[in-house]
From TrEMBL:
InterPro entries: Homeodomain-like_sf, HTH_AraC
UniProt cross-references to Pfam families, sorted A to Z: HTH_18
PANTHER family: ARAC-FAMILY TRANSCRIPTIONAL REGULATOR, TRANSCRIPTIONAL REGULATORY PROTEIN
Species this protein is from: Eiseniibacteriota bacterium
GO molecular function: DNA-binding transcription factor activity; sequence-specific DNA binding
Keywords, alphabetical: Transcription, Transcription regulation
Name the record gives this protein: Helix-turn-helix transcriptional regulator
Residue stretches making up the HTH araC/xylS-type domain: 1-54
Amino acid sequence: MASTLRLQEARRLLLAGDFDAATAGYEVGYDDASHFSREYKRLFGEPPLRDVERLRG
């Protein structure tokens, strides 16, 4: 549950364009960019940058 909220916040930061994927992960509490990317993909089905590109259309 807590990790889902952190990942949703990271997604919001990425969509706002304020951060790159590694920094967004760090901002929500992930110390390892690879771990963040794996968890993000597990929840949203795509790596962070691909997901954001798709959502922005």
